[in-house]
Amino acid sequence: MASDQSTPPLRELRDENCPGCRIERIKASKTGWPLREIVIIWSLVLCTTLPISSLFPYLYFMVKDFNVAQHEEDIGYYAGYIGSSFMLARSVTSVIWGLIADRYGRKRVLLLGTSAMVVANILFGLSVNFWMAVSMRALLGCLNGLIGTTKAYASEIFREDQQALALSTVSTAWGIGLVIGPALGGFLAQPAEKYPNLFPQDSLFGRFPYLLPSLAISIITLAVTIASLWIPEEMTSRDDPCDAPETADASGGDGDGNRAAAEQSLLRNWPLMSAIIVYCVFSLHDMAYSEIFSLWAVSPRKLGGLGYSTTDVGGVLSVSGLGLLLLQLSLYPYMEKRLGPIIVSRLAGALTIPLLASYPFLSKFEGFTLNLLLNCASLLKNILAVSISTGLSILQNKAVDQHQRGAANGIAMTAMSLFRAIGPAGGGALTN
Fold first, then answer.
1. Residue 190 CB burial class (10 angstroms; 0-12, 13-18, ≥19)
2. Model-level pTM?
């Protein structure tokens, strides 16, 4: 009896040095707005999104400089292959990164991913021909295990009552990245032509006209990598008994068998798989839109485009970024609480259809009217897209336990990346 009183509970002993349990204690002690957590997730997602989206404004001109297209109308076809190579390669490794994150912790995967992207993104900016560009984009995709791991990490470092805000932060950061990335690419690509006083034609950036945006993004990613050394680890490895399901303590150690059975059932988890299926279809549409929008905007008016420069495209996408940030972080958690993620996603999907149908008519306008309508349409499209992706992410993470979230998000990223790979290739082909 004395020993029972003097011995702390088994769970308490294991919690003492458990990173995941420290996170739980930190979450329990915090109240109010989780600013630190928002900044962490925001920075990590931007590192993923910027390399994906930054090339859209200048991809047309990059392919043109490679002299791989025999006719001008064929440029979109080749641009689609460069855009899709990233997603196709990421689909091969997403599950692997998810399993590694479940096994060794999210933080290690996040640090490896950001470090690899620093190098691979610079190599892409140094591309001198079409096949080198495709290869470097594929390398970027293979080494990028960030977005699925970040989603799992976000759901674990935010309190339970802030889960909508957590995944809204991921989706909003993704949406802002799809705005900031093209803006960076548009303003920084071909600097020797735009800013000859700063970058002479015989300088490094004159010889490699698309290096500067890649270098800028790598510097941002390097800063995030260094800062991420101090982010908290959310869980132990899967071998630690503290990460085992609670039922193992009560049943006398059957946690390993329960976990193996649960992991084998991920593909039979219908709430998870149904959310992933819808997410895949949405991802195909969203990625095709991102590529087609920029190609359409910079294409000559004689081919049905708007005749914009890369700077013009960057300006349009920059304007919608601030509005997306303010509206999504404030509006989505409220809407999700009132309506639920399913209803919000359905409404956003329904509103997207007439919005996209109106785009072809924008080429009938010019000047200020065109810029105003295009900025409004771009902002609304981004808000609707982020609302859909946030709702689906919430459904995915609620469908599995914590120790399965890395693998579940890895499966989602694999399937999504395959569909996103089809998006740029198909979108580029449709522009011909």
1. buried
2. 0.70
